[in-house]
Amino acid sequence: MDRLVPLTLSLPGCGAAPVPTAVKHGERLYLSGANAAQPDGSVKGLGDAAAQTHAALDYLEAALKAAGGSLDNLTKLTTCIVDRGYRTEVYRIITKRVPNARPVSTGLVVAGLGRPELIVQIDAEAAIPQVPAVYTRAYTFDNWHGQGFPWTGSMVVKTDNEFFVRGQTGSGLDHSQSPDTGRSVADSAAQADIAMKNLATLLAEAGAAMDDVCKMTVYISDRAYRAGVYPMIGKHFGEVRPVSTGIVTTAFARPEILFEIDVVVIPKQGGKPHERLRPYHSSNARYGTQAQGLDSKLCMAVVAGDRVILRGQTGMGLDHVLHGAGDATAQAEKAMDNVELLLADAGATLADVAKATVYVTESDFLPAVNAAVLKRFGANPPAFATVVVKGLASPELLMEVDIVAIKGQSGR
Description:
The protein has 3 domains: 1-159, CATH 3.30.1330.40; 167-300, CATH 3.30.1330.40; 306-412, CATH 3.30.1330.40. Helices cover 22% and strands 29% of the residues. It has helices at 49-66, 87-97, 185-206, 226-237, 328-345, 366-375, and strands spanning 2-7, 19-25, 28-31, 74-81, 104-109, 120-127, 134-136, 139-141, 151-153, 156-158, 163-165, 213-220, 243-248, 251-252, 259-265, 275-277, 280-281, 286-287, 290-291, 297-298, 301-304, 307-310, 353-360, 383-388, 399-406.
């Protein structure tokens, strides 16, 4: 595992210690969140969405070049903007700068980014496979859903060792809009049902299966939708037991979207199922101080080959007790305690972590939470990204951290 192009992140709590812009392992590149914040503390393109998008893509281009690749190696883009009104300019620039790839994509409107001046952040994934990537349901639009920009992409990108899947919503696979335009809990469940059927169809077409899914990240626009969305997800996944992160986000690409699901899909090696550690039933778990009857079978960590992917960790201890009520720093410390224990379960350490993504529910929490997370990595910082979100699984949860690690990298 190679940590490439270390740069100082001029984000709250990140200090002066450099963080890699990219971490390379085999074909896979784990990239730090790309935005217009510069190492000298400035922000390029103040108030200019197009300029900030160029700056983010410049950052990604430099990171990929250091790894022996280019923007053509992008496989997935999770694009976070702070207002839906910026979509046209942001996506127009991405289309212009990435003409030769067909990355899958997820588009979110978030509560904030690492600094208040930031308009856009691109959390990108990339791979440099031995054979060309295979695209499932590639598409080209001159005017994406009437939003004023062209867009080229695909539903699934298959590389040597991974399937990258476009975020799935209640929209049809023919790009038709969701038939459910209401905003009730029942409407969110209906959208989740369509999304999960789409996911199963896409995986089958690409040569994968639902039991290849290691992680799901569930985005909803209102916490109340958890009661509709998660039981439907549980129905479709059955005994698969992915790890999970749940985010309440401000909005999606279009107003009628209530829900979107991202998945990490790694093919089974030699037909051997992935190892799923500390399985649990969501209806028996606690989220903050309350239980939620979500009727999904999940787990705390998935081991897929040499990769270890954790459930999003919060101030909820592995004993199902909330630690640090009202204290984001204490919750971050507990989350990282959990991370260390779960990695140990999987035969890994903090030095094996390739990427950490931090979510906070208030920008005021960023300095202390980022510092609490990064200090635990010492001399081996991973690729890093941070986002301010509308909420998490319960109001008591103030932060969450996502972790992916590569076993056996300690000291490298």
